[in-house]
Design brief:
Elements (H helix, E strand, L loop, with lengths): L3 H11 L3 H16 L5 H16 L8 H10 L5 H12 L13 H4 L4 H10 L3 H16 L13 H11 L6 H16 L49 H20 L8 H9 L33 H19 L7 H24 L2 H17 L6 H18 L4 H14 L4 H13 L1 H7 L7 H10 L1 H15 L5 H9 L1 H16 L11 H7 L4 H7 L13 H7 L7 H21 L5 H14 L7 H21 L2 H5 L1 H8 L3 H5 L1 H14 L10 H18 L13 H17 L4 H16 L9 H18 L2 H8 L3 H4 L11 H14 L1
Length: about 800
């Protein structure tokens, strides 16, 4: 991993003796006391950093040496600042009064010192002290320090606010708001002398200051923003950029919960803006140029600092939106325009949430911006903040939002389902606003076929999002179609792959491997099948008649990676679907869902592991639905009996078949539903009896395995339960059970290959036979009354059990 020389140095650093280390500390201390720090000092600092970082143990420097390093943070040489910061990061900060990082021993607070303080702050008091030092720098005039003295201030302050927003006092918040106003609105409009320091802007050399320019090359006629370009930039212009980058965080942190001006007064003041022009509103910055294009009136001075910052932020974002309409010369500048638009719309959303009067001033601009951007898919990520703005304020402004949702929920997933960044941002938008969307966008639930395309295309990355979103898509009107859609999700995944390949591989271009499914996708006779899978909105039908045909066309897609990954997510979503639907659906809808489960159990894309998992999910929730609503068994008795009476289902749908039989035996009872008649019990008994007789009298069909003991035991138990409710059937069950014992005595049987399984089946049969010899006992055991199933004896004061429990408890506790 390392070269031999590097490993040797690291080994020496780790094995240095304490005595030698103390001597090294002394030599370094003498070097740092000198007036000039030469190359030997730099080499020693680098060696000390290696010694400290090469060991897993944290070392503590001598107090005087550590103070020297703290003083070195204020060195004019950045190399010394970097090395001293690196060394101090590897040591434990001293506590108490031994070493106090403050303005006195730091000299001038630079970016390296501020970063060190932020990393080593252990309490809110430390962060408050750091904020005080940062704000002290903000109050200094530009002439009092080097030109880069403030460059670090806002980024570090922003980090501090992230960790501890409450560390600023009211006066400090007012100061920051005033400074942000200065930098945002009154930065110099002349280019700085010299080359740019990099970052947002690039440009050729220039010796004489000239006015700043727009991205299209024209001279700017308004105040400076992040979208202005030049050959060099002044410090206040860089502070303008930093201010804009932290403006939204600042507004969300300190303005959302604070309101110092009554809403009516804010409305009156905001409406008076821009009626007259004045150069008096220059805040505290000397030499600022006030634009004659967008200068605010002197009435803005009536606003408190927070309200004034809100107004300036509004003007700044309006100017950015205007600048974004200019044709940029460079592609990178075009991307910068989009990024700034996203931030500008988000900031406008914040200020409108704080001041409702700004909604009416903002919406014309937002509406025009949407009209300009919505035609180009390349602007998709910019349109999401616009959709957020419409969602938050469209109702107040009485604006029709239908076109916005058609683009966001309709066009984006249809055409950009394979864009991972858009998918992440759109799903994040939905997760953050799901309650508001359900309330204000009723058509949202109709777009679930389209939104599921993101999941079908990239299931591993999107499954967490849909775990949160799926409950919001489940309604009584969409439940049946949504269930079909979830079961066909692997088909949707395969169809999206075919659609993508169809656009990438022209029909006339030969390919090395022939895809039958791709030919079918391009075949007009099958086009309707694929169009239904790719539909944008729900409501065109729950499913299609030729679903088996679609599965045959996509048979080769069963082993495609995207399809198999998608298939693994479906069981998870089905659990969420059923957990949600039981809370909102009535018995009629639940009965319909049971029919869908029985029908779709044989209509799934041929992926064996997928089919097995779906049957397991169906089995689990069939039991749950019937337990919550036992009358469903009588309502759907015809379909359940038809399913349970098919011997083929024993071998192909073992899990689901077993649970259907158990449900029939458990809930087909007068105690569960008074409509349950003797004839219904008899017909169910005869259907299950025929199946049990068939599978225990012959070998399994070719290509299948013997039925599991669980299936046979469940069938026998169900027959015994039904016979206990209609005593005329007991002789028929007893006859079968006696024959079963006689047949198994002769040795192995064709329908059970394992001897232990056979013993378990026979034992179960003998237990049931013994019970049925006493019909009254059998009914009490096989169909117990509710008070026996859920006993409350420990709470019943009329019996002796509570007294016995209390006596036993006191005895055990006393011991």
């Amino acid at each position: 991993m390392y070269s031999h020389a590097s490993e040797s140095l690291i080994k020496q650093a780790r094995e240095i003796q304490e005595s030698e280390l103390q001597k090294f500390y002394s030599r370094l201390m003498k070097m740092l006391q000198g007036k000039e720090l030469g190359h030997d000092t730099v080499d020693s600092l680098q060696r000390l950093h290696l010694i400290l970082s090469a060991t897993k143990y944290t070392r503590t420097l001598p107090l005087e040496l550590q103070k020297r390093f703290v003083a070195l943070l204020s060195s004019p040489a950045e190399q010394h600042q970097v090395l001293s910061t690196a060394v101090l990061r590897e040591t434990l900060p001293l506590t108490g009064q031994e070493l106090n990082y403050n303005q006195d021993n730091l000299g001038q607070l630079n970016s390296h010192a501020a970063g060190l303080l932020l990393s080593q702050a252990v309490s809110k008091g430390d962060l408050s002290s750091l904020c005080t030092q940062l704000l002290r720098n903000l109050e200094s005039r530009p002439s009092e320090g080097p030109t880069h003295s403030l460059m670090h201030t806002l980024p570090v302050l922003n980090n501090v606010l992230t960790h501890s927003p409450e560390c600023l006092s009211e006066d400090q918040m007012t100061l920051v708001s005033k400074k942000l106003v200065d930098w945002l609105r009154y930065a110099s409009v002349m280019q700085g002398v010299g080359t740019s320091s990099g970052g947002f802007f690039t440009g050729p050399r220039s010796r004489q200051p000239v006015p700043i320019a727009e991205l299209d090359g024209s001279v700017s006629g308004d105040f400076f923003t992040v979208l202005c370009v030049g050959q060099g930039f002044t410090e206040d212009q860089w502070m303008n950029v930093y201010s804009f980058s932290m403006l939204r965080h600042w507004l969300l942190t300190y303005h959302s919960s604070c309101s110092t001006v009554d809403a009516a007064n804010r409305l009156q003041l905001s409406l008076s803006v821009s009626h007259s022009f004045s150069n008096d509103d220059r805040s505290e910055v000397d030499g600022s140029v006030v634009s004659m294009v967008s200068a605010t009136s002197s009435s803005s001075r009536l606003l408190p600092p927070k309200e004034r910052l809100r107004e300036k932020a509004f003007q700044y974002c309006q100017r950015l939106i205007e600048q974004s309409d200019r044709k940029a010369h460079k592609k990178t500048d075009t991307e910068l325009q989009k990024a700034c638009l996203v931030e500008a719309v988000c900031i406008l959303d914040c200020v409108c949430a704080e001041d409702a009067s700004l909604v009416y001033r903002t919406f014309p601009c937002i509406k025009a911006l949407f009209g300009r951007l919505s035609s180009e898919l390349s602007n998709a990520r910019v349109l999401l903040p616009i959709a957020q703005f419409y969602l938050n304020h469209g109702e107040m402004a009485a604006v029709d939002c239908e076109n916005v949702w058609k683009v966001v929920f309709g066009r984006f997933p249809t055409e950009l389902f394979n864009d991972p960044f858009l998918a992440h941002e759109l799903l994040r938008f939905l997760r953050l606003n799901v309650e508001s969307i359900e309330l204000r966008v009723p058509q949202y639930t109709l777009y679930f076929p389209n939104l599921l395309k993101f999941l079908a295309w990239d299931s591993p990355a999107m499954v967490d999002d849909f775990v949160d979103l799926l409950p919001s898509m489940v309604t009584t009107g969409t439940a049946v179609e949504l269930l079909h859609t979830l079961l066909d999700l692997p088909c949707l995944s395969a169809t999206l792959v075919l659609q993508h390949r169809s656009t990438c591989l022209p029909i006339s271009e030969p390919v090395g491997r022939s895809f039958v499914s791709l030919d079918a996708f391009r075949n007009p006779s099958f086009r309707g099948l694929f169009l239904f899978v790719l539909r944008t909105e729900a409501g065109s039908g729950d499913t299609i008649d030729r679903l088996s045909t679609l599965h045959e066309l996509l048979v080769e897609a069963a082993d495609w990676p995207r399809v198999t990954q998608c298939a693994r997510t479906v069981p998870v979503l089905l659990h969420i679907f059923f957990n949600t639907i039981v809370t909102i659906a009535d018995e009629k809808l639940l009965a319909h869902l049971i029919l869908v489960m029985l029908e779709r159990s044989s209509l799934l894309l041929n992926i064996p592991a997928y089919i097995k998992e779906i049957h397991r999910v169906f089995s689990c929730h069939l039991l749950r639905l019937c337990k919550l609503h036992p009358s469903l068994v009588v309502n759907q008795s015809h379909e359940l009996l038809e399913f349970a009476g098919s011997t083929a289902n024993v071998y192909s749908k073992e899990e689901l078949y077993t649970h259907v039989v158990w449900v029939l035996g458990e809930y087909l009872s007068v105690s569960c539903d008074s409509r349950c008649s003797v004839s219904l019990i008899t017909s169910c008994f005869e259907a299950l009896e025929a199946v049990l007789f068939e599978i225990t009298s012959s070998a399994p069909p070719t290509g299948t395995v013997c039925p599991a003991p669980k299936v046979i035991n469940t069938l026998m138990s169900a027959l015994a339960k039904l016979a206990s409710r209609s005593h005329d059937l007991i002789p028929r069950v007893s006859l079968f059970l006696s024959k079963l014992r006689t047949v198994t005595r002769s040795g192995s049987v064709a329908w059970c290959s394992d001897e232990e399984d056979l013993v378990a089946i026979v034992t179960r049969g003998e237990e049931l036979w013994s019970l049925l010899k006493a019909p009254g006992v059998a009914q009490s055991v096989l169909t117990p009354p509710p008070h026996v199933i859920a006993p409350q004896w420990h709470r019943d004061t009329n019996v002796a059990l509570p007294l016995q429990l209390r006596a036993l408890t006191s005895l055990t506790h006393s011991q």
